[in-house]
């Protein structure tokens, strides 16, 4: 009995097992059937993700704004972001290895997996480019292109975040750190785990790469200019291709590329690159290349490494957290000349540096000759004794400098009050510019006269010149009058400012100084007229103090400087150096040695200029006194020679 019951239970268990297996088989068959009809579930998900990534990349595709280049090899931006594939197979491109390997016209597969010792070499000299790289870029005939990449990451609090990156490749970087090849990028961050979610909301943060680190902005704070409501305008700086939110002139600085001026000012051209989506599961071979995309050179003239070697490639959120900053430093209009001269000084210094890298012995020889010439000039002049005015004694160049400094020390408050007029004029210029560009509604004229237009920039410069040049002329003539006339009147507003009495001679001197200043500006702008303007300025070196003396300024200056033109020219430009270069040099030193803002730098330079501007005027006045003394001495010598003697 018991045995029979056990057999019946075993039979029931077997039947139950068979039923379960049949049900499982039925479910599996249904799943297989569904798969055969619709495709695999995994493949469907991957396709949907790719579609979402592409839709996101196309929606926020950037518009690149470059400075217009009116003619080939001229001013403006000649390089556009291109498709990297255009350089592969080109007969002038060479892939070089660490052991002397040389692959001409390399393909993308030739770059795959190559390490740090390899580099791509384009035709041309990286430090002396001429127009070679521009011609090479034109020969590629490549369409403007950006590479989009969607990558998931997490915040410091382990919250999901999605990074949408756009990578741009340029053939050449023509900035202060000239080098072949240039990779740039911008990045948008979304509070989303994937592209499908990101398509339902707006970005939270925008990051534009600039030399070292990035400039950050919230998407909705208005800093980023948009096309079609979603496409950011990327203002690419001329030469460096650093990315900015708007058109202006900017202070660029990094440990790798040095410092200089980034220019995104108008006129500009908008470029809409094609979007190539990068799939991390199927990257092109060249994205595994870890060498340099440009000629290997010392220091910052080295070609850059590619996107896959950058921190933001693997850790986009951390790159923003650690390297991001809010607000690039724009070069302000108006103020002292520190910011006005910054671009010119750094550009000139860069040219000297590039020449030194290319021709080190020649540059070293020129440097040695300059030092020796300076030593000879210093030793040839006479520095003692100090002869205070009024005096009829001739003075050597060294005596003029020491005497001018002694004069300044005797009445520092008087001369400092004089110098105050220049920063006050700078503030007035800044206020006028602010009223014009920030307060006044120009309406339809904003495209022509707005701050981002060509005429707007010219208008801002004109406002600055119209206030600063007259202020400088008034300060200069007042300082000269304080020495020449011992002008110490104490009544009236002008006297309280230290300006002294304004009469016919004073206004004549102001007009003469203004004319000299305008002529020098025109000469510097046109360059063609610079040589004749400098020759005329040597003849007119003491025209302003001559006008104060009641003489016809131009004729009297030409008479006194005859036979002394080189000396007069040298002392005049020494005075210019004291008045303008010293504040600039101190301001630039503070700028480079600290994190001080341009406002602080301008303030420091302005305070130094309170004394150096009057000091330069005193030097010019003492030079006039010296030339008058020499003229009288020459007349006396001739009149005392007996008849019949030579």
Can you put this structure into words, describing what you see?
This protein has helices at residues 2-38, 41-59, 108-111, 132-140, 195-198, 311-314, 316-323, 337-358, 360-380, 397-410, 412-419, 421-439, 446-449, 454-484, 492-496, 504-526, 530-539, 543-548, 553-561, 565-593, 598-639, and strands at 63-67, 94-96, 102-104, 119-121, 145-154, 160-173, 179-190, 205-209, 214-218, 226-227, 231-236, 243-244, 249-254, 258-263, 268-271, 274-278, 324-326. Residues 1-44 and 488-494 have low confidence and may be disordered. The chain starts with a helix and ends in a 7-residue tail after the last helix. The longest helix has 42 residues, at 598-639. The protein is α+β, with helices and mostly antiparallel strands. It folds into 2 domains: 59-326, no CATH class; 337-632, no CATH class. The strands form 4 sheets. A 7-stranded mixed beta sheet has the order 16-5-6-7-8-9-17. Strands 1, 10, 11, 12 and 15 form a 5-stranded mixed beta sheet that branches. A 3-stranded antiparallel beta sheet has the order 3-2-4, with no helix packed on it. The protein is 51% helix and 15% strand. 36% of the residues are buried.
Q: How many DSSP-defined strands?
A: 17
Gross morphology: elongated
Q: What are the segments in which pLDDT stays under 50 over at least 5 consecutive residues? A: 1-44, 488-494
Strand content: 5-15%
Spell out the blueprint of helices and strands.
Elements: H1 2-38, H2 41-59, E1 63-67, E2 94-96, E3 102-104, H3 108-111, E4 119-121, H4 132-140, E5 145-154, E6 160-173, E7 179-190, H5 195-198, E8 205-209, E9 214-218, E10 226-227, E11 231-236, E12 243-244, E13 249-254, E14 258-263, E15 268-271, E16 274-278, H6 311-314, H7 316-323, E17 324-326, H8 337-358, H9 360-380, H10 397-410, H11 412-419, H12 421-439, H13 446-449, H14 454-484, H15 492-496, H16 504-526, H17 530-539, H18 543-548, H19 553-561, H20 565-593, H21 598-639
Parallel strand pairs: 1-11, 5-16, 9-17
Antiparallel strand pairs: 1-15, 2-3, 2-4, 5-6, 6-7, 7-8, 8-9, 10-11, 11-12, 13-14
Helix pairs in contact: 8-9, 8-20, 10-21, 11-21, 12-14, 14-16, 14-21, 16-17, 20-21
